[in-house]
Prior knowledge:
Distance between the termini: 49 Å
Radius of gyration: 18 Å
Largest sheet: 4 strands, mixed
Oligomer: single chain
Amino acid sequence: MESRRQRAAHKRSLKHNAEVSDPGGVGDVGLPHIADLIADGEITVGVLYPVGCVAVATDGHNSLAMLKRRPGETLAQLLTRLDQAIERAWTEEIYTDEINPPTSYARIRSKRRV
């Protein structure tokens, strides 16, 4: 039986851990809605196959925004757009979805396959 390699545990400094665990620090760099959201909700940034890099914000019950990273867009720009989309969801009840195609588009594609 083969043995599996164990990943080495990464130790981080107490200063780094304090910075990471301080959600108020996010608001200090101009992302106040993300800072407010992560007190009760969450954001996820990563690669979603086959879409590519995405940023998603949920409040625990609803998806507030699902953004696809644009060509040439920096992570800071993507997070700024996510912060703005969270604000729109809270103030205007406009929920942004750049990941899923519109329903009418999905219907057209499914009819063509028949």
